[in-house]
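Review form for a predicted model. The reviewer records the input and the model, then writes brief findings.
Reviewer: anonymous (R2)
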Amino acid sequence: MREQTDIKSMTLPELEEWLMGLGEKKFRAKQLYQWLHIHHVTDFEEMTNLPAALRKKLRAQARLTVLREELVQISRMDGTRKYLFALQDGNMIESVLMKYKHGNSVCVSSQVGCRMGCRFCASTLDGLVRGLTASEMLDQVYRIEDSIGERISNVVVMGSGEPLDNFEELVRFIGLLSDENGLHISQRSITVSTCGLVPQIRRLADMGLQITLALSLHASSQEKRQELMPVARSFSLEEVLAACQYYFEKTGRRITFEYSLVGGINDTKEDAVRLAELTRGMNCHINLIPVNPVKERDYAPSDQREICNFKNFLEKYGRNVTIRREMGQDIDGACGQLRKRFLER
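Model under review:
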């Protein structure tokens, strides 16, 4: 049986070429593209301005990627929504909607599971199943936008998976998400988080995109980073920071350093001083995150006093610092927790 084409992952020029290969007129591609990326249709029969004969061809030869909402948890504290979506092959992924005064932000997953092995993350406990297609990343945004009936203005690729470990599909996703013919979210409103895959950071820098790069730093020394993040055995702290500096020089985009505070592990005054030294001279923002407890690990978040002290030390050294406002604390907060609990049940 012939494999169906994933049309939602196609750019408009690719769609034009594909449809002309089926003997269709070029202008049909724009109509099809709008049904996919503006109207978010879930069935070819909803594409009412396409001829019946073309819809029949599409049913036979094209795959329409549509995620199914399996479960949604809504925080009573702040309205944060955590979605569990079923993919068409039966795998499950998570996405999160966070509502702010400045707009709606969605956190999307880039892989089913993860192979990076970070010690405080639930996503990585069962390893990597597979990377998501661009269309599967996009449809997380589309399903959530449709479910709330409001526009999404910011997207962060910080859910399950290491985005730069799924590089080609990630870049395709960013292109489609920011395309003026589709949802047209500004690249400056897209953030991609990485645990520090150095060659991919440099490759991304050379592409000249205007997205924000967020590095999961989580430690102020190579020794501590290796303890928390196995990826540090492949790429040293020095190499990762040099790649981040390269990204800034190439794009002019300020780097965000994500630093999860783990009680008694990386939250001391010495850690703060080392972190200030590491980031000296860099155009960066440091985002302090109280770590989410994961029952399979014995890490606990730092207490509020330690977090405030850590922030104060960094500010004393002139660093730009915020403490991330914890959203949805009364639902399965940590990346991968909702999926893991669902699969266990």
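Findings: DSSP finds eleven helices and 14 strands in the chain.
Further findings: The radius of gyration is 21 Å.
Recommendation: see findings above.
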